[in-house]
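Protocol step 4 of 5: obtain the predicted structure for the target chain.
Materials: sequence only (see below). No template structures provided, no constraints applied. The aim of this step is simply to have a reference model before the mutagenesis design in step 5. Sequence pasted as it appears in the construct record:
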Amino acid sequence: MTRVFALLWAGWVAYFAVAESLAFALRRPDLTLSGFTWRFEGAGWTAARYLTAATLVWAALHLVFGWFR
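Step 4 output (structure tokens):
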């Protein structure tokens, strides 16, 4: 079961990397994750952007240091 989840996570990361690379190759920055985030609620710092920032900080601390398990 652990192998299945490891493969699923690796697949998700590969899909994300391909999608981001393709958006840059097509010169369409509006199709990147940051492009979608900044268009999500309009101009300025909104709840969606704070949530995105908090999620990325949590993910970094969790994956790098093993915190918040």
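Step 4 remarks: The chain has two domains: 1-31, 39-69. Residues 8 and 14 are 10 Å apart (CA to CA).
Proceed to step 5.
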